[in-house]
Amino acid sequence: MTPDLLLPFDDTAPTFAARPVWCGRGSAVIGRASLGAQAWLGDDSVIRADGHEVVVGDRFWLGARSTLHIAAEMYPCIVGDRVTVGRDAVVHACTVGDESVIEDACVVLDGSLIEDGVLLEAGSTVFPRSTLPSGFVCAGSPARPLRRLAPGELAERAERLREAAASEPAVGPGDDFAPDPAVFVARTARLHGRVALAPGASVFFSCILDAGVGPIVIGSTVNVQDNCAIHTRGDGLVIEHDTTLGHNVTAGDGRIGPNCLIGMGARLGPGTVVEADVLVAAGSATDPGQVLDSGWLWGGRPARALSRLDAERRAMMARTVAGYAAYGRAYRKLQAGATEGRWTGEG
Fold first, then answer.
1. Of 293 and 340, which is predicted with more confidence?
2. How far is CA 344 from CA 13, 17, 40, 85, in A?
3. What domains can you pick out in the chain, each with its CATH number?
4. What is the average pLDDT across 80-100?
5. Quick check: 320 pLDDT over 80?
6. Is the pLDDT at 85 greater than 70, yes or no?
7. With contact defined as beta carbons under 8 Å apart, do 34 and 56 qualify?
8. Coiled-coil annotation: which residues (predicted)?
């Protein structure tokens, strides 16, 4: 089997110890990624090593619509042997030990360490630079140890995640879409209906933008990162200029103002209004119709105002926009010569 998309970055292509056991539809492996033997990659899974390395051990299992990524020039993503990651999870710029299990919709953030043999329960968020100790069930936001694992529990939970993949519904193809030459739309992204992208916007790998009812309007220099899912059911969604949607963000009808950052794995309820200059913490969720006031860091489930944005956070948000604008320009060129359906790994 071969991933749907194999793409080099900075002249470095992915390598594999052996052909993966399974590569689902829309799976993508990019850049300085090294995968061990017997990898299983679910539908629309993304492994992106564009600015640091991703190193994955043997018998890795990655669920549908999950994302592995790095922090450019800061943190790699290192995953041990016999690790299972569920669906719609983000494993970002961190280290995951052997035989750990990360369940559905988890977010593991930069510089964190999950030691060997950890069970991270569904929906948890591992905060940056934190450590989860070996042999524990961990959960929450921030994730903390709850109790010691029972004998056989880790293997049972891993098997349960893998069995659930058999019932995962297939996602249909997107509409034919010819964006402006100044826009990047990843080959594995799926766009439906009335989607408008301003110059400089970028839609990354395995995103779903479903504007079958209301329109989706994306402003200039907006980046919609891997595995974001936007589904409109009413008036549509407007995302204003210089805004970031991190990996695996879910959104519907509403409005997101300029100069915002919606953190990885966040879920914006229908009708959410995010005013200008807002940072939404990773793994947060909003209630339907919630309004997030300008100038604040919001976090929690449901999200609440945590602190005023300071110069350091605003600078980070601006760097993210600039960095992803550069990624978009690079990927527009790289994707034109991408390999699709041809084995380029080792073994």
1. 293
2. 8, 12, 17, 25
3. 5-167 (2.160.10.10), 184-309 (2.160.10.10)
4. 98
5. yes
6. yes
7. yes
8. none
